[in-house]
Amino acid sequence: MKLDLMKLWEQYKEHDDQIAREELIVHYSYLVKYIANRLAINLPSYVEVDELISDGIEGLIEAADKYDLHRKIKFETFASARIRGAMIDGLRAMDWVPVSIRQKSKELEKAYAHLESTLGRPAADIEVANELGLTMDKFHVLVRDASVTAMIYLEDLLLGEESASQSKRMIDLLRDDQAENPLEIIALSETKSVLAEAIRKLPEKEKIVLGLYYYEGLNLKEIGEVLNLSESRISQLHTKSIHRLRGRLSRKKSQMF
Question: Distance (Å, rounded) from C-alpha 249 to C-alpha 257?
Answer without folding.
Answer: 12
